[in-house]
Write a structure and sequence with these properties.
14% of the residues lie in helices and 35% in strands. It is mainly beta and 146 residues long. Strands 1, 2, 3, 4, 5, 6, 7, 8 and 9 form a 9-stranded antiparallel β-sheet that branches. The longest helix is centred in the middle third of the chain and has 10 residues, at 86-95.
C-alpha cells in the first residue's frame, strides 16, 4: 500500500533487559531477564561447547533427560534463578575456572547472553566475560557482628 510506504510497525513486546549469568563456587545465577527471555521454564538443559567456549540454556519440558530445575512461574519468580547441580557446576568450571579470592570475598565470572528466540535458547560466551571478586553476601559471622 503506497500510503504506508516507509512506515515501520511498532513492536508492542516489552523489551527484555540484559541477559546475565554469574558463576561462583556455590552456583550459577541467571538474572530474572534470562528466565523471562526463555518464558520462565520449569526446566532447562545446560549445554557446553568447549571448542567455541560457550554455555547455552535451552528451555525444555519436564520429561526431557538431563534437564535441571530452573524457574518458577512468572508471577512467582521474583528474583534471579540459581542452578547448583554439581555436574553443571563441574562442566561450567571448565569454561570459567575460578581464581582464588581474598578472605571475605568470592571469585566470580559474569557473562552476558544472547537470546535465540526461535529455539528458546540463550547463549553465553566466555569471550567478553568478566572475572572478578565481590564481598560475600548473607549473614555475617557472630564475631564480626560484635
Amino acid at each position: 500500500m503506497a500510503l504506508l510506504q516507509g512506515f515501520e510497525e511498532v513492536s508492542v513486546k516489552t523489551p527484555i533487559g540484559k541477559l546475565t549469568m554469574t558463576i561462583t563456587e556455590s552456583g550459577i545465577r541467571f538474572n530474572k531477564s534470562t528466565a523471562a527471555a526463555l518464558g520462565f521454564p520449569q526446566r532447562v538443559k545446560v549445554l557446553i561447547n568447549e571448542q567455541t567456549r560457550q554455555l547455552a540454556l535451552q528451555a525444555v519440558d519436564n520429561r526431557s533427560t538431563n534437564a535441571v530445575k530452573f524457574s518458577k512461574p512468572e508471577s512467582k519468580q521474583v528474583a534471579s534463578v540459581s542452578v547448583k547441580d554439581p555436574m553443571v557446576m563441574e562442566a561450567a568450571a571448565k569454561l570459567f575456572p575460578l581464581s582464588a579470592s581474598p578472605e571475605g570475598e568470592v571469585a566470580y565470572w559474569s557473562a552476558e547472553g544472547e537470546l535465540h528466540e526461535k529455539e528458546k535458547v540463550v547463549i553465553f560466551n566466555v569471550e567478553g566475560a568478566t572475572e572478578g571478586t565481590m564481598k560475600k553476601r548473607g549473614r555475617r559471622a557472630a564475631a564480626a557482628e560484635a
